[in-house]
Amino acid sequence: MKIKTGKGTISLVTLVGIWSISALNALPGLAVSPILGQLSQIFPQATELDIQMLTSLPSLLIIPFILLSGTLTERVNNIRLLQIGLFIFAASGVLYLLSNKMWQLIAVSALLGVGSGLIVPLSTGFITRFFQGPYRVKQFGLSSAITNITLVIVTVVTGYLAELNWHLPFVVYLLPIVSIFLSSYLKDASGTKEKTLRNTPAETTMTQEPALPENFINKKSLVQLMLFYGLCTYLVIIISFNLPFLMKEYRFSSGSSGIMISLFFLAIMLPGLFLNRIIGCWKRWTELYSLLCIALGLGLIWVSRSEWWIGIGCFFAGFGYGVIQPVVYDKTTRTASARKVTLALAFVMAMNYLAILACPFIIDWAGDLFHVHTQQFAFLFNFLITILTAVWTYRRRNTFLFSQSADKQ
Question: How far is the C-alpha of 275 from the C-alpha of 321, rounded, in Å?
């Protein structure tokens, strides 16, 4: 089966290989989450700092290695770079299963961050390499959907495995083995790409994009996208961090908060399945309507004490972010030449992990600033920031950051 790309066609197995890389983006940290409550019993000598390092170290190391990977894509074979990252990722899974001391788990967590960081920008880089125009937008949406549905499924699976044995959740870190196998098809597709393009001149002409100088990056537009994406990630990730504490205060069960967070990630996944239709309907207001969805969601969580309304709030916030994420990725491809585009995507994707790391510190700082430390405050604070961002988006609706024009800036 052949898949149209806007530049020609690729095989279905090649596309599955690209999708498999997107699925891996959701994995770092997931295996540790279900055993956090057990770690103090498993390792009675472990300090709170040890446990914090176990959860935060992968994200911390992912950031520099995302940027390193984006830089290396200009100098080394991208398939080889992908395979190195996948091998490191899979090796961390094996070492996790063999580790029986806290220092070993912390060291392997660092290794996981290295491997994951190397492959993260390649997940979008290969989409940019093979796809163009609306085909590329569709694949960015599907990539986002796959990442988030994987997150939901693996969260459930690791929670079940943790009940059997605390080592078993780390089995999910062996999934890169599948991607290693499929990477050979990516290599074959890369080798036949030019031939495929020559065989489909009509389709290529229809979706041809303006050529840019070989080493071109529009730094101003790229920085704008980085800041906007980082801000949007920060605004919604508060649901993962603070909702369990809010629902505990409301005397809901931990199972209920887990369902709400799963609903949030499923909502992020949903727009990716029909992203082109959403953009076609919302047109120039895509980012504005997405921010309004996030604002509505955060507002409902803030004011409501009903599980139903909190669930609806999680859905709206997730849906809005689920539109923004792939749209930002697609716009990033229009800020750089083909040679530099993976590097540009690396900078943007690094903002996701930076926002995750910064979120608790920002909320603590804001709480100290306003002398408010309630669980509702985090959602109120982010709701107000979202409203201000939506107003700014409306005022800047004709700029590159918020315009749906396909022209490169």
Answer: 12
State which amino acid sits at residue 235. Answer: L
Q: Are 104 and 55 in contact (CB under 8 A)?
A: no
Please name the helix (run of DSSP H) or strand (run of DSSP E) that holds residue 4, with its range, or none: strand 2-4
State the Cα–Cα distance between residues 382 and 379, nearest whole angstrom.
5
- Only one residue has tokens 């080798």, namely 191
Mean pLDDT of 30-55: 80
Exposure class string for 34-58: b at 16+ Cβ within 10 A, else e: bbeeebeeebeebeeebbebbebbb
Helix (H) or strand (E) holding 9: strand 9-11
pTM: 0.88
* Closest-CA residue to 54 (of 170, 149, 151): 170
d(CA 173, CA 88): 10
- d(C-alpha 153, C-alpha 173), whole Å: 14
Span 177-224, pLDDT tens digits: 999 999 888 876 665 544 444 444 444 444 556 666 777 889 999 999
Q: At 69, list the tokens.
A: 């990977």
